[in-house]
Amino acid sequence: MNFLKNSFNLVEEYKGLLKAVKENLTPSVVTGVSGIHKCGMISSLLKDSQKKALVIAADEAEANRFKDDLINMGTSAAVYPLRDFCFRQTAGTSHEYERQRLEALSRYISGSCDCIIACADAALQYTIGPVELKSKMFTLSPGMEIKPDEIITRLVKCGYTREEQIEGNGQCSQRGGIVDFFPPGEQNPARIEFWGDEIDSISYFDIATQRRTDSIEKINISPCIEVIPESNNILAKKIEKLASSIRGKQAAVAKPVLLDEAEKIKNGVYISSIDKYISLIYDRPATLFDYFNEDEDIIFFSESNKLKERIRTSLWQWGEDIKTYLKEGILCKSLDTFSETWEYALIKAEKVPSVFMDVFARGSYEIPTKT
Predict the structure, then answer these.
(1) pLDDT digits (tens, 9 = 90+) for 77-94
(2) What pTM did the predictor assign?
(3) Which of 261, 305, 334, 355 is most enclosed, with most CB atoms within 10 A?
């Protein structure tokens, strides 16, 4: 696809945009570009500037089209989807979208992904921060010296649940010198066999037959949930402190819920509603924007008016939902914020080289162009 990059380099406006990106003379606005042209420009800018990108798409359909087009143009890309936070105790909770988000973040941190694409509301949702995520990622390969128990401990700290036998993603088990686990993003679980405290072999295996299939030279491990307490006791104490501070009508319904969940956490019982404590678990909850910085990245905004409308709608819906959660005592003050606003995205756009890409110019932008 070099002909695309070569073609863009013949256009004077593109040269000016490339210069603005390299020298951080942005935000800039590009108009008159359709979807495929946006992808061509993104791919070319990344190759010419040697940067990576966050692309904020107008909706899910556009995000998936961008991913396919960018991959076909030779740019490795991943979609970071919106997910529903779990605030109630439920018997079974799907973590599919959560694991897709973590896979995208892990690939970006490890260098195997050049571009993450997300809708605005997904990008603004709270998640695990880059420092915390990186500290929990590790690689295993044959010949490494590590005890089976240590691998299980590290997997549990990554949000895996320990089971007698693996049945799905995010689970791990141990039988003597054999450790099985099912990493997010993989089609099959992995099996590690030990010779003493040394990894003898790593391979995939079939869940139904339990037979090994393909051997693995190395495997990268990353968290399988976004909200992971570093210490159950510390989290339980924070929840108890919050419960004791609640006053007014809300106290009667919220305090029993908080104290019950604090007791379960203290006793090592996994609660499916752990998402609601993200602001207590992380000193400063992060967003997708926190993974991108001035020196190495570009942020692209596609159809800014649609983005603003999507955020407005999302915040309105959240405002309606929060009323129910507060009334039921599921949430309380200090546990009622789980995303940032459009203004937050614009502040990030002033710090990281940013390009607003629209088919048509519709009205004025909140931030002026510098080029």
Answers:
(1) 999 999 989 888 776 677
(2) 0.89
(3) 355
